[in-house]
Amino acid sequence: MHPVNHQDVPPKPASPPTAGLPTVPAAEHGVPAAEPPARSKGPSRDRGEAWDQDPSIRAERPAAGRGSVNQRTLWKAFFVVVLLAVIGSLVWLVLWLNDNGNQEASAGAVPGVLQTAVTPPATPLPLPRVVEPAAYALGDCFKDFSPEALKSTVVPCNTGHSAQLVALFHYPEGEPYPGAEALKAKALEACQAAKLGPAANDYKLNFERSFPSSTSWDSGDRRLDCYVTSPGGNNVKASVLP
Length: 242
Description:
alpha+beta
């Protein structure tokens, strides 16, 4: 036997060693392993953003609120349309009543005789004939016509002419001079009342008005004339009256 040298024997440890032992997974001992923390797949979203992205939530949440808003919008639009229609009808009614009132007042304030149909005799034959304005007759056709001329040449309407007298308005004797603007307006009414025949569609024609000056009114001229005239000159070869 060899003598025991106490210096060669390591001293007994005071507690079991812990360092250097292998780590054993907990599952091997029947203990479930802890779940790893969830990893984020993207930036965090608040509740509103999640609702915007989820179709099921988007379909379920504010459907009632959106429907009520749409109904209110439709009712407001319907009310605006009805209101505009009522206002338009009232405006039309006021204008119509005002226009009728003006026409009645005008008719009552301006006595006279409107003539739009040819009644014989017209300018007597033979034609052509040079005639003064006071002797112009409804239906007369004029060659080289000027409404300001002191005389005009009346020709048969089936020959070339540049104007035809298609409407007349006669003021009664004793009426005071109404003024140039009133006479222009009345002559325009006479032109608007003129009755033209089919031949008027075959030519390019304009309306021209002629009315008395204050001087001719004082001398007894009470007639307003409405002519159709051709800007092309003496190219009309038919009466434009019915």
